[in-house]
Amino acid sequence: KKYGGRRQATTYAYRHHQARPDHPAFYCLVVKPQWYQVLLSDPTGVVASAETPWDPDDLRLLAAYIYSHYDPPRGHFLWDDTIAWVPGATLDHPPTWKVKVQDQWYTQGQFIFIGEPWGRRTTILRVKDDSGGEIVIKEVYRHHKRRFKEEKILARIHGDGDVLGVVRLQGADHVTTNNETIKCTAKGEETERTKERFALLDSGSRLLDAKTVNELLEAVYDALEVHRTVLLEREVLHRDMSLYNILMYPKWGGVSGRHVSEKTPVSIRDVLLGSKRPAEERFPTCLVIDYDNAAELDAKSGGELNDRTGTPLFIARSVSLGTVLLDHVSICGKPMPRLTGDALYLYTTAYGQERYDRYNDEPGSPKCHGGLPPSLEVDDFDDTRKPRFFHRPEHDVESVYWTMVYALLRAQPAAAPRERYASESSANVWNILLSHRIPAEHSRNVENRGNIINGLRSAWLELFDPTMHDVALLLSQISQHVRSEYAWWTWEGNFQPDHLHEAVQRLILQYLVNHRDNPIKLDPRRPRPTASSSADQGKTRTPTQFSQMQATGGTGTHTRGQVGSGRGSAASRNRGRGKGSRYAANRKGGAKTTAAAGGPSQQSVHSREQATTNEPVANSKRKSSSKPSRSSKRLKTLSGEPVPSVGQGDDDNVDGL
């Protein structure tokens, strides 16, 4: 066969990594009538020995394979004794996990997210402490060249007190076993990854679990307010806002003695009630998580902002392409929207007239959002004089926009008839969204999602049931602000980096006020379909395929009613990396579920990737004649080339880290 058994072995390795977080690395044995081969898999990837003939006079490799299970070579961490599998009381009860963080053991752990096995290999569990309180444990294998670290970013955000709405860290550890830090280097020292573990206090549910449209939009509003607060007050840019990292119905960890920052933003609930709660009571309707791709804007290097970072389905268009957009729509702008009636009164009551006026454009002025759009026609631009691309705050707002589009298109109105199939127009939109990839550098000129964001109002109306037509109009209005490429604007002294946050939030607030007495109830148990009746079901990638995967021993969720923080998926996480690209542009991303830090149900665990759409495939390798050293009984090294696989991890390539 083409792959000589390595494909099957790598598939088993893929599953084993996901099911057993207590096994940082392990060996696989490929047996054929003519030869055998040993594979080593750890978060850096898979490497293999030569295909070794069966020779009764020379079975040193086989002997070394067996011996290494009992006395593994230095650097081969086969066991992590700080996390342990606990069998269920009976076969009907699923196993649980106990986990150690900073010398404290947590028990009754259940998976809520399991990521790609090669790369960061993110695993998230909900556990209980000695008092029965719940927290979330997140563990990752961090590349040794990664510059920004999530625990340090969170410490910066919560430095003068907790900023409610941003996940809070209780503790962080390098994971050690036998007094040795777990470091994986199967593919060489340059690929070294260290196991890190975090205890997180807060959790939440995915936006797809919204019970009403209003509650979903409230969570989006608050996510934007939290994001802009962290941007302006802490100079931190998230860079990976997505369905997996914006949670609703937050579940706040019980803490005592922690100060709450006065910078904690005003929540949409405060705005709608017409009065502000004290900062320590100002819990928002959202939870923003997963800051391991965040950048500190005052860092000396600043090169990170040139990288293409994000989740493919939700990444901003210009970030995906790694270049400033230039087309007839992106160089046009819309003035800052004005609020009317009660929405204006509630806004100024919560934030003050000064904030409202600060973002407004003068009537009749050519300015949009405080800046001047280009005056040239697109055909008159000198393409060689494009502004230099970098990740702007507006790009994170666009990621929130794609997240909102996704969640609202899937939302099933409780009173509307259920669709068995999506309409052709809806199926076309889903095909564009779910097939989006971060392109290779040589193909940076195609961004099919422009067909969605540039759609006419009538196109948006076609996508929704009549009961949701006001939602369609809202998305149409928001699109007109988000689709502009603000890097082309000329800013004259009044640049507000959060101007796009303001515009989108104003439109959401106006909708919420206009519909506060008649919220549209949703049925989160029955999301709307994504495939049309004429589609080839075997080829249509559905959100179930894209965001959920049932795996032996459970899989992660930064999605399905669990807790959320996740990375990649076959449909949604081709991360670019390399020159100007944050992740390998052609990789299939990690498995993640929609409840990154919490969620209502623990009955099922999901991954952001369907096994059938992203099975690991071992590439064929050249044979090597090298043999194990005669001086050791153990597998000191595995000769032969590394075995790459479809879905290899988030940080395979560290250019631009």
From TrEMBL:
**The protein's name in its UniProt record:** Fungal-type protein kinase domain-containing protein
Care to name a GO molecular-function term for this sequence?
A: protein kinase activity
Pfam families according to UniProt: Pkinase_fungal
Which regions are flagged for Polar residues bias?
Answer: 530-552, 600-617
| Residue spans of biased composition, Basic residues class | 620-636
Provide the Fungal-type protein kinase domain boundaries. 191-406
What PROSITE patterns is this protein classified in?
PROTEIN_KINASE_TYR
> Which residues lie within the region annotated Disordered?
518-657
Transmembrane annotation, as ranges: none
